[in-house]
Structure formats: structure tokens, C-alpha cells
Amino acid sequence: MIRVPMLFFWPTLVLVSLLSACQPTATKVQVITTDASYSASLSNDATIALVSTAHNGVQVWDLTDSTLSYQWLQGQQQNTSNVIDTSISANNLYAATISSHSLAIWRLTDGSSVGWWSLPSYAQSVAIANTGQTLVGLVDGSVMSLSPEKSRLIQFLGHHEKVNSVSISADGNTALSGGNDGKVLLWQAQTGQPLQQWQLASRITKVAINDSATLSFASDITGNATLWQSDTGNPISHLDINRRQMNFSSARFVNNDQQLLTGTPSREIFLWQIDTGKRLSRWEVQLSKNTQNKGAVVYSAAMIAPGSIVSISSQGLVEYWQ
User: Fold this and answer.
1) Quick one: CA torsion of 197, 139, 92, 154, rounded to 10 degrees?
2) Is the Cβ–Cβ distance between 281 and 303 less than 8 Å?
3) β-pair partners for 159
4) What single string gives the DSSP state of each residue in 112-173?
5) For residue 164, with 0-12 CB atoms within 10 Å meaning exposed, 13-18 middle and 19 or more buried, which class applies?
6) If both were cysteines, with which of 46, 72, 237, 290 could 58 make a disulfide (CB 3.0 to 4.6 Å apart)?
């Protein structure tokens, strides 16, 4: 009777050990901040990191030589920052940051401010294009679309509930938004004209559009994740998620739009094949030494070459994998 349980436990331990051994480890780790962080973004080429810290404002890091380029303050009170989301344009010229009720746009070339705008409702998500065209998803169900160059502001009213995620094409012409109503809307960022509409089973947590606006992606809280052809609205694939639930904290089209790179609030990074939805690779970000926080949100991930991945997480670490 004593030996029977041992026959069950031993294979389990071996399996766990083998799984741990197969887990890829980062080849390089940069500590960007030891401060608590609320949001972070990597540029497409992973040369720039934008980090919203709790006590040291928004920091812009040059990752090529690990130097702090700029430090911005937005709505700072008592030496604390309330920036909840960040974005970097595809051409590395602009950055956008949002607090609960304000938007700031910055130039990455010299760190100067383009402008600051008060928002009519609580902000949720921000995205910025090469032209400085910026989207802000709001809890009242609207999306603000701002063009600083043309001093033009429109309010998109296609959603009926809170807008959780927004994304914009590189040229600033096409917007993608998703909300608690389960709607995924593709629309013209300059005019608000609807282009496509899709419906998922539950509230949307993440949307992403590729730079050329030909591909659209969205996922909901139940793990439904779909890729569409933007012009026709036809589905390309559904991500092959073998779990009851998976949420995404980041998503980016990579490798000439052949693959999708996603991050989760539970330390994981996944690489997916777009035409099939199959999972290709998985990585797990580290925890900082001596941290009491046992979790990590993957804020952003990028591919700098086929098979070379960079991520930034809520642990304040930038990690590189080959």
C-alpha cells in the first residue's frame, strides 16, 4: 500500500522537471527600473522603451546603450505619476501617454512636448501613428481621434460600452477599437467612417492592426482570438488556444506580418502563425530578485530578427531571447 502512491508521483515529478528544463531563458536582461510601473511600450525595432513609473515619471530609454534619454511628468502630484498607458509610433518619432483624464503627445527626437489635452471621460487605452494621429479609448464608449498637425479632433461613437483597447495604422488613417460590448470596429481615423465590424462572445481585452492596415486582430476575456483580412472582413484564422481562458496584455504583428507576438498578464509571451493560428513558441519573463510580487505583466514585446524576441514587463526588466 505504501508503494502505490510513489508510482504516481515519480512520473509527475519527472514531467515537471522536463518542462522546466525546456523553458527558454533570456540571453540578456536589462534592469530599466526598480520602481513600480503602470505601463510600458517597446518600439517596433526594440531600440526605445517607454516606461510609466510610480515615482519617477515617464522614462524614455535608449536600449542600444542602456541610457535614460528623457524623463517626462504628466499630472504629477506629490512626486507620483498617474500615466496608465503609453504608445510609440512605428517610425520612432512620436510617443503618447495618458493619465485618467489627460493625453500628452511627445517628440522622441528631442523629448519636447507636442501638446497636452484634457479628456471628457476616463481613459483606457492609447495608440499613436507616424503622423502623430492619436487614438484614446474612453470608458464612456467613445474614442477620441486627434490630429495635432491639422488641429482636428473627432469623437467616434461606434461602441455602446467601455472601450478597452485601440490600435492605429502607421499612416494614421485606419483605426481599430474593441470594447466591453464585444464589438471590434475598424474605422477611418480622420472621419469616423465605419469600415468593418466584428462581434466576439465577450468583452474585448486587446486589439491590434498591422502598420499597413491590411490585418486586424482582437481577443476577448474567454480566450477567443481572431485574425481578419481588413479589406474584406473575412476571418483568416483563430488562435489555437488550448485553455479555458487566456487574456492578452500586448499584441504586435511581426516577421513581415506572417506572425503575431502576444504577451499576457501572467508572465507569458507567445508567437503565433497568422495563416493557421498555430502556436509556434512560448517564453516566460523573469521575476526580479528579492521581489515580493510573484507575478508579472508583459507590457510589450517585439521581434528584432526572426527568432530574436525582446520584452518589457511590470518587473522593470527588458529581456532578450534567441
Assistant:
1) 70
2) no
3) none
4) -EEEEEE-SS-EEEEEE-TTS-EEEEETTS-EEEEETTTTEEEEE---SS-EEEEEE-TTS-
5) buried
6) 72
Contacts of 155 (CB under 8 A, 6+ apart): 142, 143, 144, 145, 192
User: Cβ contacts of residue 196 below 8 Å, gap of 6+?
Assistant: 185, 186, 216, 228, 230, 233
Contact at 8 Å (CB) between 271 and 238?
no
Spatial distance between the Cα atoms of 227 and 295, rounded to a whole number of angstroms: 28
Residue 227 to residue 252: CA distance in whole angstroms: 12
Query: What pLDDT shows up at residue 288?
Result: 75
228 bridge partner residues: 216, 235
Helices (H), the chain: 3-22
Rounded CA-CA distance 253/255 in Å is 7
As a whole number of angstroms, the distance between CA 31 and CA 20 comes to 24
Least reliable range by pLDDT among 9-18, 113-122, 222-231, 288-297: 9-18
The whole-angstrom separation of Cα 291 and Cα 256 is 37
Mean pLDDT (the chain, rounded): 90
Q: What angle do CA 186, 103, 55 make, to 5 degrees?
A: 125
227, amino acid identity: L
Q: How many other CB atoms are found less than 10 A from the CB of residue 240?
A: 12
* C-alpha to C-alpha distance for 89 and 215, rounded to whole angstroms: 18
Look at residues 103, 52, 112 and name the one whose alpha carbon lies nearest to residue 80.
Answer: 52
Residues 6+ apart with CB under 8 A from 308: 320, 321, 322
